Amino acid sequence: MKFNSVGQIALVVAVCAYLLSVYFMASPVWMGFTINALIVAVIAQSWNITGGFGGMSSFGHAALYGTGAYASAILQVQYGVNPWLAFAIGIVAGAAMGGFIGALAFRYGLKGSYFALVTLAFAEVLRICASSFDITGGGSGLQLKLEPGIANLQFPDRTVVYTLLLVVVALVMLVTYMIKKSRFGAYLVAVRENEDAARALGIDTYKIKVQAMVISGAFGGLAGALYLQLWLFIDSTVVYGSAVSIEALIGPIIGGAGTVWGPLIGTLGLHLLGEGAKHLLPNAPGLNFVLYAIVLICAVRFLPRGLMGLAALIGTLKTRKDEDHA
Amino acid sequence: MLKLSGIKAGYGSMSVLQGLDLHVDKGEIVALLGSNGVGKTTLNNVISGFIRPTAGTVTFKGDVLNNRKPSEIVAMGVAHVPEGRKIFPNLSISENLKLGAFRRASSNISQNFDRVCTIFPRLKERLSQLAGTLSGGEQQMLAIGRGMMSEPELLILDEPSLGLSPIMVEEMFDLITKINADGVSVLLVEQNVMQSLGVAQRAYVIEQGRFVMQGEAATLLADPQLRQAYLGM
C-alpha cells in the first residue's frame, strides 16, 4: 500500500499499535470496546464503498446490516441451519438487499439527498417489518442458543473473538484496496467525480453503481452477521435502527471517505472519544452521540477529507507515479 | 462512416429534432452550426446514445446505433466530448486521461497517452496537477485528450470553443485540425461559424430542429444568406 505522506504513515502505525496493545492491556474493558468498534468498522467500510468511492451517500446502511443479521438469525433459530452456512447466507442476503435498493433507486436516477432519503426509508420499513412478523421474533427479537464452539461459530474467549475480528477487518480492507486499485474502482471514482463525464467516456454508470451497492451490501451483511454471532441476540432497533446507519457513515467521514484506512481510523477515534466521555461523565448516557455530532460538524467544516486528508498534509512524500510517463 | 437518416427526437412531449439527415465520411471534419437552443446538443446526445430517437436511424460503419447503450457506442469507436468541459476536477490530469482509455483500447494505454501528450504539450507539463486547477482552455484540451484516449474513429466535440479567450479559440481549432490529420473523423458542433467553416470540409446549419443549409464549407462561407444571418455581414 502506498501512502502520500509521513503523517498518514504515522496515523496508520498509531492505529496498528493501538490494536496490538489491546492484547496486553490489563483491563478487559478495552478489548470489549475495541471488539464493538471493529464490527462498526466493517459496516463503515461498507458505507465507504458506495459513499466514499462512489459518492452515493446512504443514510440507511442499517438496511444491509440488519438484513445480514436477520437472515442469519432466522435461518439458525427458525430452521436450525448450520451457523456457518447461515453466516454465509447472511452476507449474500446483505448483498442482495444492496443490489435491490441500488437497482431500484438508480433505475429512477436518484442522487444526493434523494438517494439518502430513500435508503433511510428502506431501513425504516425493514425495521418496522422486522418488529411486526413472527418469523423475525416480532418486538422481542431473536435469540441464538448459547452453544460455544467453533462448529457453532461462537467463541467464548474474547481474545479469540478479537483476533478473528482483526482478521476479518484486514480482509475487508484488503478487498477495498483491491477495488480501489481495480478498473472497477476507477469507474466508481469517475462516477463520484462527474457522472455525466463518466457516461460520455463509455462507463455504464447504472451497472457500476448497482455493483457497488452489491459489494457494500455484502460487507454490511457481514457486519450484521458478525454482530449476531458475538451477542447472540438481535432485535429490530439494534440492527435496523438509524443509529447503525449513522455509525456507518460517520466513521468514514471523520477518518477519510474514499480511503482504505479512513473508516477504521474514524471509527476507532470516535469510539475512543465516546468511551472517554462515558468515563468522564458517567451520568450522561447518550452523550457519545452528542459528541459524535459535534465532531461530525467540525470534520465537515474543517476536515473535508477526514483524518487521512489531514495527515496527508504532514510531511508530503514525492510520488513517483507521475514520472512514469515523463 | 456515420449516417443519420430521418432523425426525430425530443424530451417528453416536446419534439426538438424534426427529421434530420446527416453523414460524416471517413477522415472528414464536419461542422454542425447553429445558435443556442436549436437542437445541436440533442443531436449529439442521440448519436452518443443518451437519448433515443423517436424516428429515424443512426448507423456507424453500417451498425445501427439506435438501441445501443452509450458505453457500447464508445466501445465501437465513437468518442463524445460533452459540452461544458465535464472533467473530473479532483483527479489529476493523468488520472483523467487514463479513465478515457478504459472502455476501449485499454491494451495500448501508454501509446495513446503519448499520442495525447504530443498533441497537447500543455497537458504533459502538468500531469500530476489536479484537473480542477487548469484554466478553461486547458480543461477543454483535457476533455478532448481524454476522448482521444479511447482511440476513436469518430470524435464528437460539443462546443469546444465555448467560453474560451480568442487566442485559446484559435489554438483549439488548430488542435482539431491536428487531431483530424492524425486520422480521426470529427463532428464539430459549434456556434463559432467563421472558425468552424475554416477547419471543416462540410457543414450543416441547423435552425429549430431542421437543417436550413448544408454543403461544402467554402461554399457556405461565401453564401450571402449565411453571412447575413450569422456573421452580420
Keywords:
heterodimer; A: mainly alpha; ABC transporter involved in vitamin B12 uptake, BtuC; two-stranded antiparallel ribbon; 14 helices; globular; disordered C terminus; B: alpha/beta; Rossmann fold; four-stranded antiparallel sheet; 10 helices; 10 strands; 38% helix; 27% strand
CATH class of chain B: Alpha Beta
The SSE order of chain A reads HHHHHEHHHHEHHHHH
Question: Could you report the average pLDDT of chain A, rounded to the nearest whole number?
Answer: 92
Radius of gyration of chain B: 17 Å
Enumerate how many helices of chain A there are, as a single number: 14
The percentage of residues in β strands of chain B lies in 25-35%
CATH class of chain A: Mainly Alpha
Order of helices and strands of chain B: EEEHEEHEHHHHEHEHEEHH
Shape of chain B: globular
